[in-house]
Every structure is written in structure tokens, then in C-alpha cells.
Inverse folding.
């Protein structure tokens, strides 16, 4: 039996091979970017040379000569520029972390309220979301600073809220804990509690995979940490923290923790503004889960809470996480508007250093590098979590 002749396959020329053309296109694009970047760098160096300057970061060892209203560590005008830059960076991190936590809580509440069957709650949430999302963030921040926190009563007429919270136009005073001699030991106990909480978390997850049941892993892990902390608090001979209350002293506030109007205006504005966008993200994520999933869970005998925890939220998170990451990045970058209300964040401090030293290139490059690093770090963490919860297809 004579075999049919196999058609000869002719090799595709490389200029018509799609795979090779894609690689060549990528190489050409990178080369173009490097060429343009090289031109910009050479032009910048030539301009600095005409001014008798060159790129250097040695000026950071010099004395700053200016004060900062808020710092996370002891700082005065005799500190170096590096210390000033670090203080601004820590202030940015503080606002970003606090803002992300509270904006997430607010967004979840708004998203659920927007889907509520209660007419009043639904309409209030809808009005808030539509109003805030159509405002300018800069105007919103200035409103909170000039129209709210600077309009609070003077120190002489301070208003005290329940919980010993003092409201004045000089800041908001809240109770705060002062570490005692036993606080280092208490930190070790808390570290042990965190390790034990992780053990409980992974043990419950293994139990869930083995039995098919779904225990409240996060809740029990938190309860474990809380119990260890409470036991450690009472076992130690001296309390780890002494509660320090804020009080009026002369024309200022003293004691406790004093939150300045600038910090409160910036954080409140970012939380309320970003929370509105997160609320819409949460609403869209919940609505993406088909009603058939809910009806099936009810048919299996799950109650409303179990349906939300086991059916709705796990599926909604796969839709929520990607746009939620964008909102977190927006909040971090929008914190640079702190300069509008006088809060000494990274951009505010770097702008002051730039005005004093004339080192615009060095400062702008550092600020860009820091914001890029914060954005990449946030993206990496959120993408890692997104990979953990995404639907695995077979």
C-alpha cells in the first residue's frame, strides 16, 4: 500500500513570524524608551552644568532649619534633611493606612446599605454616594479644614464628648495609653498571641478542608489573640499601659493624643471621599452574584448570615478586589493633597526642602520613587490576595 505523500511544510520567514515580530516589537519599544530617557537625562545634566550644579544627595546631611507640626519621632529645626524627609514619609504612611482601614469599613457599610430593601436607608446611601462622587476632592478637603475643624469651639469653650473626647479648633483630644515598665513584656505576650492566632487559623482551615465544614476562622483567631492579650494584661504585676486623658491646659490641649485639625481634615476627607467609591465597588460586586446562587443556598438550608459568608461574599470578592486595589492606590496618591490643608506629609516636606536647597531634580525623583514603591507594594499585596481567592477552573 502506497502511503500518501505528506505535504512539505515550508518554514515561515522571520519577518512574517508573529512570535518573532512580537519579541522584536518589545525590544524596539524598550530601546525607544531608553533612547528618549537618555536624551532627557543628558539634557537635564547639560542644564544643571550651566547652573554650576550636578546631581547629588549629599545635601541631605545638612541642617533642615524648619519645624514640622507633626512628627512620629523627636524632631526640631536642628535635625537633618533626611530626618525631615523621613518624618514626612511616616506622616504619609500614617494617613494612608488609617485612611484605607476606615474607607474600607465605610465602603462596605455604604455598599450593603445601597442594596438594602429599606427605602430610607437605600435612598440615604444613594444620595451620599452620588453627592460625594461628584465633588472635587481638593474642594472637599478644604471644606473639612476651613468649614469644619477650624470652626470648632475655641479651647476656652472646648466641647467634651462621651469617652473623654475633647473637640476644639486646636485639635481633637482623645484618651491614649502611656507605656509602663511592663509594656515590653506585654509586647512579647502579644507576639505569642499572634503566633497562637495563626496556629488556630491554619488549624481551622485544615479542619475545614478535611470535614467540609466552614468554621469562623478569622473570628476564632481574633478571639484567641484577644484572650491572650487580656490574660497578659491581668497577669503582669503592673498594667502595661496607663490611660492618659486629654485636658485643656491654658490656650492648648495637653495629655492623651492630640489630633491636629490638619490631620483630621485630611484623613476625614480621604475616608469619606474614597469610601463612596468603595461603596459602589462593593455594591457592584455583590450584585454580580446571581440570585440563583442565593436561592440554591437557601434550598440547602443555609440561613441569611451563612449565605452571605459562604456564598455571596466569596464570589463577590473576586469582582471587588481589582477595582478596590485602584481605590487604595488613589487614596495613597491623593494624600499628597495634604499641602492644601497644611499637613506635613511627604510632598509638603519635600517641597519645603526643595525650596531651601534648590535641589528640584533630586527631591522630585525621590518623591516619585516613594509613591511608585507604595503603589507597587499595595498592588503586590492585593494581587497576591486576588490570586488566593480567584476561582480555580479545571
Amino acid at each position: 500500500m502506497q502511503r500518501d505523500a505528506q505535504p512539505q511544510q515550508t518554514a515561515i520567514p522571520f519577518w512574517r513570524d508573529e512570535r518573532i515580530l512580537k519579541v522584536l516589537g518589545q525590544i524596539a519599544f524598550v530601546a525607544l524608551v531608553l533612547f528618549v530617557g537618555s536624551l532627557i537625562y543628558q539634557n537635564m545634566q547639560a542644564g544643571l552644568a550651566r547652573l554650576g550644579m550636578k546631581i547629588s544627595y549629599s545635601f541631605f546631611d545638612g541642617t533642615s532649619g524648619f519645624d514640622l507640626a507633626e512628627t512620629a519621632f523627636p524632631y526640631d529645626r536642628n535635625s537633618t534633611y533626611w530626618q525631615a524627609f523621613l518624618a514626612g514619609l511616616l506622616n504619609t504612611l500614617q494617613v494612608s493606612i488609617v485612611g484605607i482601614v476606615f474607607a474600607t469599613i465605610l465602603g462596605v457599610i455604604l455598599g450593603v446599605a445601597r442594596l438594602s430593601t429599606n427605602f430610607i436607608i437605600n435612598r440615604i446611601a444613594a444620595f451620599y454616594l452620588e453627592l460625594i462622587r461628584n465633588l472635587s476632592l481638593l474642594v472637599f478637603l478644604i471644606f473639612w479644614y476651613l468649614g469644619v475643624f477650624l470652626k470648632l469651639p475655641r479651647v476656652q469653650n472646648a466641647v467634651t464628648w462621651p469617652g473623654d473626647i475633647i473637640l476644639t479648633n486646636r485639635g481633637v483630644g482623645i484618651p491614649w495609653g502611656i507605656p509602663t515598665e511592663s509594656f515590653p513584656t506585654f509586647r512579647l505576650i502579644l507576639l505569642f498571641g499572634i503566633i497562637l492566632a495563626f496556629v488556630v487559623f491554619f488549624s481551622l482551615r485544615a479542619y475545614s478542608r478535611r470535614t467540609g465544614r466552614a468554621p469562623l476562622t478569622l473570628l476564632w483567631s481574633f478571639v484567641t489573640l484577644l484572650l491572650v492579650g487580656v490574660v497578659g494584661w491581668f497577669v503582669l504585676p503592673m498594667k502595661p499601659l496607663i490611660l492618659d486623658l486629654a485636658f485643656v491646659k491654658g490656650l492648648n490641649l495637653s495629655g492623651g493624643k492630640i489630633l491636629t485639625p490638619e490631620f483630621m481634615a485630611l484623613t476625614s476627607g480621604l475616608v469619606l471621599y474614597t469610601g463612596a467609591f468603595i461603596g459602589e465597588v462593593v455594591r457592584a460586586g455583590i450584585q454580580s452574584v446571581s440570585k440563583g446562587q442565593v436561592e440554591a443556598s437557601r434550598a440547602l438550608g443555609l440561613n441569611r448570615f451563612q449565605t452571605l459568608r459562604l456564598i455571596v461574599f466569596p464570589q463577590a470578592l473576586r469582582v471587588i478586589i481589582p477595582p478596590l486595589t485602584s481605590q487604595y492606590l488613589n487614596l495613597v496618591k491623593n494624600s499628597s493633597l495634604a499641602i492644601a490643608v497644611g499637613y506635613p506629609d511627604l510632598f509638603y516636606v519635600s517641597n519645603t526642602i526643595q525650596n531651601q536647597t534648590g535641589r528640584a531634580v533630586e527631591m522630585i525623583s525621590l518623591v516619585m520613587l516613594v509613591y511608585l514603591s507604595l503603589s507597587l507594594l499595595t498592588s503586590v499585596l492585593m494581587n497576591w490576595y486576588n490570586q488566593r481567592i480567584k476561582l480555580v477552573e479545571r
Notes: The beta strands are 159-161, 165-168, 171-174, 176-179, 241-244, 247-249, 252-254, 257-259.
